[in-house]
Structures are given as structure tokens and as C-alpha cells.
Write a structure and sequence with these properties.
4 helices, about 40% helix, four-stranded antiparallel β-sheet
């Protein structure tokens, strides 16, 4: 079991390792910015990574406060499902009502790799490989539909 401070340091080391891993991947070279993440240019739509004791997630999240606006954006994205799922067939999970640990409800479109544990350093390479490859694909596909989603 980790103390609060040890867990904080472990996560810092994990994310620094992920950054270093990404910098060595040839398919990620030459990008102005490594990842789009929160700067999608679509209001209340974010791309995220999550690494937990249960596995790795690569996430497109719609986090509008208004249920109606959130559901409308989910529907607009679903019109482009074929494009968003390109090279990610049968991997994306479309969750209309995902509840975060904080209790906030969002819409999520994500892929998940189970069997990885962030507390096990031996699993970190698996996390890094999965998250970098899947985010590269999800981000690329999202950028193809982004202009259709902007207000």
C-alpha cells in the first residue's frame, strides 16, 4: 500500500515516463503539440487519458453542464461514428451516461485495456504503448470531424 505522498510521486513518475515514451515514437514525431487533450476547439469536448489499477483508458468526453446540450453533442458526434471508429472498430465504448468518481455525469466515448495496474511498474510499458497508439488514432479521427461539431 502506498502513502499519499508515495502515490503522488508514483503518478508523477508514470506521467513523466509516458511523456518520454511518446517523444521516442516515430509516428508522433513532428507534431506541434504532443496531444490536443483539452484544446479540442469544440466547447465542452475533451480528449483524456486515464491510468488506474484497473487498466488504461483513452477517452473523448462531453462534459457540458446542461444535459440537453451534452446529449445533443453526443448525437452530433454519433452521426460521424464511422469516421471516429476508423482503425478502432469494436474498441470504442459509447457511454451516454457515464458518472465520474466526483458524481458528475458526462458522455464518454472511450476504449479501455484491462489487465494493467498503474501500481505495477512492470505494466507501465503496456500502458504507454496502449495509450499512445489509441490516442493517436482517436485524436486523428476526431480532427476529421471537429469542424462539423463546432458551433
Amino acid at each position: 500500500m502506498y502513502s499519499k505522498e508515495e502515490l503522488k510521486n508514483l503518478k508523477i513518475e508514470f506521467w513523466e515516463g509516458f511523456d518520454n515514451y511518446c517523444r521516442t515514437q516515430s509516428y508522433l514525431q513532428g507534431r506541434d503539440k504532443m496531444w490536443v487533450l483539452y484544446d479540442t476547439k469544440v466547447k465542452n469536448v475533451e480528449l483524456k487519458f486515464d491510468a488506474t489499477r484497473d487498466g488504461a483508458s483513452v477517452i473523448l468526453e462531453i462534459c457540458h453542464r446542461s444535459d440537453d446540450a451534452r446529449l445533443e453533442m453526443f448525437e452530433r458526434i454519433s452521426w460521424h461514428k464511422a469516421t471516429l471508429e476508423q482503425d478502432l472498430e469494436d474498441e470504442l465504448i459509447w457511454d451516454l451516461t457515464y458518472t465520474r468518481d466526483t458524481g458528475k455525469q458526462v458522455c464518454r466515448i472511450y476504449c479501455f485495456c484491462e489487465g494493467l495496474d498503474i501500481h505495477r511498474r512492470a505494466h507501465w510499458d503496456g500502458f504507454y504503448e496502449y495509450m499512445a497508439r489509441k490516442m493517436f488514432l482517436l485524436e486523428r479521427n476526431f480532427m476529421e470531424i471537429r469542424d462539423y461539431l463546432q458551433d
